[in-house]
Amino acid sequence: MLQQHPLLLAEWLAARNLRARARAHALKIIAGGGAALGAAAFVLVTLRQQFPAMFEWLLAYRVLMLVAVAAYALFAVGRQRRSAEVRYTQFWLAAAPVRQYSRSLAILVVSLLPLAAQLLAASVLLAAMGIVAGVAAATVAASLLWIAGGAAIGATIGWWSARRSHADALEGSRYVRQVKARTDTVPSAAALSGWPLAQVRAWGRPDNLRILLMVGMLAVQAGSSALVGLSVVAMWLLGGYLAGLLTAVLQTASMASHWLRSTPLPFAHFAWAVCRRALLYQIVGTMLAIALMVILGSPVLSALYVGGLWLSIVVLACSIGVADSYRARRPFLKLAVSFAALAIVEAREHGWSIPIAAVLAAWQLRAGAKT
Amino acid sequence: MTSIVLDVRDVHARYGKSEVLRGVTLQIRTGQWFCLLGPNGVGKSTLLHCVAARLAPTAGDIAVCGHSVRTQTIEAKRKLGFGCAPEQLPGLLTGRQCLEVYANAKGLERIDPDVVELGTALRFDAYLDRFVDTYSLGTRQKLCVLLALLGEPALIVLDEAFNGLDPGSALVVKRHLQQRLAANRCGVLLATHSLDIVEHYADKAALLLDGRIVREWSDSEIAAVREQGANRFEELLAMETGAGS
């Protein structure tokens, strides 16, 4: 069948070759997968007493859950379809005489596969939660049916709404504030400091923002006052921005270190240039978030505590990110291990994760400086 | 008086289990334009990445103006101008910002006037305040060349730097490099498939095959090949690499 659909055949061969390549790292993958499964089992067993109430809640609010899942599926499939359309116009087989039917089939498969995989993962997770908590199979099945129904409805509307493909070949910088034309060119690292901010703006295109906005609006409880409703939506948008900014620092640190590796740029200079403005924005954003949490009724001390925790996570992630990028290493495993360690410490003793994060960050910066 | 700006001694390098460089040795002097030739995948870019300290050799040593890339990395990088690949340029910065950041990274007080002049000659001025992700391949390539020339480097390392450049711009860059070489301001290491550059501009050329330098041509040998007629170098290379046999 694949022989008659060149695009699908190309995708299938690429996936198969990726699997073959992964075999070279079989031990690492097995170890990583085993660790992830172990961690998931630990979390499931630890939290099993909460699951029956969660299933009850899911069924009590099944219509809301269906709408939320449908909204997610709608945007996910729509985005996948649009990106697949763009991708296949620039694909290496773009000039090959592929029939329209075959092309549409490839786009359909590529658009639906990620959602199907997520649905499968969610089903396995819910089933595991039901088993460890001893929840009735009928309850678990009903929850799964509502989720699958929402996904099917959302996917159908998402596929249909994205049918008029707009070949989105424009560059990311169209959402970034234009730079004023100048006549002088002076050596400066200022642009490096602005790069993570520009990256977040490039990601903050309407297609992505509307998802965050939708989730924020769904999170507002019925009967809330206008102030509370606006605060909840603002909180979601702010949270998305701060998380995006942190991700942007990690990404731009990696890209900038790769680009500037042949220059004699010292680590301290590099780290300060990449993180300076992003950290300032994180501090201001966290203060705003603290204010919003207080407006939403959170005690001031708790809000300050959450803000402090977030900033310590930001500092630790930035330190690991810039240090490892500067040393031409990938920071992701170290980030995962550090966050897991912080989560364990925080679960045992509230507040201890903040000084530990500071120590780990200092250690990482020292390692970077010694490079 | 000329001095050695690049000294590569018995360099080995590998990606995972695959050994790409298997004992490369070469020297470049001030005022010398050195062309590195070879079929795709023989390790030309890998060697250039080792010289730019972007990849650590598994054995051997590389010295830029007498500074070991391995042990005196910062000093070696101060003397180096490396033309990165166009796709590595940051899309969300403007051309001017790229120049500013790169000059800052090299610790410069100001942008070299002759780089500014070269930018004007390449008609790059109009693109200075535009984002790099709106550039064509040729415009990106111009920016890569300008970045490589910042800070009066004693060794200029370029990887296929003329790919995508229009003939006029390519000529401007070649003449600029020749001026720098004639004034003994630097040495140039260029990895290329462009044989007209070898025939008309190179002082020395080497053929890299299977991770080793298998043949070198001096200035006089290149001139002799050139006098044998058009396409002679092409035939010679085809014979050496076994292509078309």
Can you walk through the features of this model?
Chain A is mostly helical and 371 residues long. Chain A is built from 13 helices and no strands. In chain A, helix 4 crosses helix 6. The longest helix of chain A has 34 residues. Chain A is globular. In chain B, strand 1 and strand 2 form a beta hairpin. The mean pLDDT of chain B is 92. Chain B has 245 residues and is an alpha/beta fold. Chain B is globular. Chain B is built from nine helices and ten strands.
Number of strands of chain B: 10
Class inferred from helices and paired strands of chain B: alpha/beta
The ordered H/E elements of chain B are EEEHEEHEHHHEHEHEEHH
Give the termini distance of chain B in whole angstroms.
44 Å
The span between the termini of chain A is 54 Å
Largest interface between protein chains, with number of residues from each side: A-B, 36 and 41 residues
| Sheet of most strands of chain A | none
Helix and strand run of chain A: HHHHHHHHHHHHH
Q: Helical stretch count of chain A? A: 13
Strand tally of chain A: 0
Indicate the proportion of strand residues of chain A. under 5%
How helix-rich are the residues of chain A, as a percent range? over 70%
How does the helix and strand content of chain A classify structurally? mainly alpha
Q: Give the overall silhouette of chain A.
A: globular
Question: Roughly what percent helix of chain B?
Answer: 25-40%
